[in-house]
Amino acid sequence: MAFCKFSTELVANNKTEIDNVFIDSFMPAAPEECTKCYLYGLFLASNGLKMDNTLENFAKKLNMSEEDVETAFRYWEEQGLVQVLSTHPIEILFNPLKNIFTGTKLFKPEKYEVFLRQAQALFEGKREITKTEYGEYFEFLERSHMEQEALIMIMKYCIDSKQKPVGYNYILTVARNWASEGFLTVKQVEEKLCQMEQSTSSLAQILNALGIKRSAYIEERALYQKWSRDLGFEDDAIIFVAKSMKRKGGFEKLDSLLEGFYAARKFSVSEIKEHQLAQDSMRELAKQVNKSLGLFYESLDSEIENYISPWINFGFEVDAILKVAEYCFKSSIRNLEGMDGLMQKLYKLGILTTESLMDYFNQLLKNDAQIKEVLTSLGISRRVNSFDREMFKTWTLGWNASPELISYAATLSVGKLGPLQYMNRLLATWHDKGVKNVEEAKKYGAVKSENITYLKGKSFNQEEVNANLKQKQAMAILQQRKRSAELKAQNALVKALKDEEFKAIYNAFNEEKISLAKDEAFGKEHDKSILQNLKSQLKEKLKQLGISSIEPVYSCKKCHDEGVVNGKYCECFKKKYSRLMGTEKAEIPENPLPSESDKNVQQLVQAIDEVQV
User: Fold this and answer.
1) pTM of this prediction?
2) More confident residue, 301 or 600
3) Any idea where the domains of the chain sit in the sequence?
């Protein structure tokens, strides 16, 4: 009796480790009774039990005869997992599975005698199969549990397809692929070969369309199975695509094109033709846009993917895109990134057609005419620039100043140093005081002028110079955040629009928004549940696509990283500005900083540099 041993309860609550090699390589092909014997024997061997570890008790436990148990372990001995050390009494030794496939394994000659003769006969004396090659075949048969006759059929198919002696690595690659697909028996391999042979006439047409004069290789037959069975393309569609790239690539190029059409959900010849025409149209449109902007292009693929395709998917008319390109060139916007910024703005405004675009441009011209009147009245003779437009937008939309109030402010600003800046401060003061008309403005009169310094013929207040430097820095930080958020959202939308289902829901959602806006404008009732339902569908589809949001996620929810709300600086700007000024709460200038692209700002920055020197 052993001095120390485990209790029966402890053994029952213990664990028996099973090697993954057994589960993956041996268990799938093993008879059920053999698997039961191996696992129970492993349990007994692992726990070292003596009193119950007999053949009689073993058979009784599994409800099997002793002869069946012996037969099961003989099976595992052939697989190399155990050794039968003795028969009277029977004694089984379990081998480490990690050693099963290492080193040279000895196989019983009689087990593969027929296979040896059949395999060598396939080569018809053109070459001899080496011992190493036979070993590889035996190893594959042992691991995969494929029937020997099935492997012979695969070998013959490989040799016939290549029409020349082939190496065993090629044969085993094909055999492993078929085994992984579950083709292990003679019947299963026969069915696979029938499938392959049925595609012979189709493959001949595809090869002819590609300009290839030979029979199809096994890999090419497998690709055809993929296109027809897995991707769902009919022969006429495959042949049509093959003809379009005749002598411009083989099966790999054809496979790449078909996968592209599959991703775009284009399967029939008509759908593929339509898709190709759309691609050609976008390529031509890209050339025209580049020409309008004065750009040289080497490859249009990235431009189409990042700009042209998203614009088309947004719903812009082709003529509208070309009109915007012409406008950008005249406005000194000479790159696609700058044009894309304007396209994003137009999209948010719902300006997608040529008609609505021309209305928008006409409104800009009308505004420019009003701005020009103001400049003329102030004695300023120059063209209207982007700074003027932003300032006028702030006056009219941000501060709700009427034309009469703007005209009155201009009359008070004539003769002042920096009359436009003075007029801007005057309107800002009136807005802050709640002045709405000329009568109320006359009560306050003009604002008090400040001391002015002169630099290079331009007038700047010294405090204004320092404050504007920090304003510029703070605004630049916020604008960078805004651009980053919008670019991320744009990229997400472009990615999502590649999915046809999402695109359909997205277009329906936008159409419903426009319909709702029209009804609200004319006081009509509108079922808002439709829009809400489409919104939910979009959210669910984005979740399926793994996309978090197609809307910009701004760091500031109030101003959307613009830095300005209702014509006044936002709290996020004030915090950033105060931090840059080096105080907890710096005095914030009343007037928001103008656009960085304006020449006046460039002069201001130049002036700042000179003051600092």
Assistant:
1) 0.39
2) 301
3) 8-99, 109-197, 199-263, 271-352, 357-449, 464-581
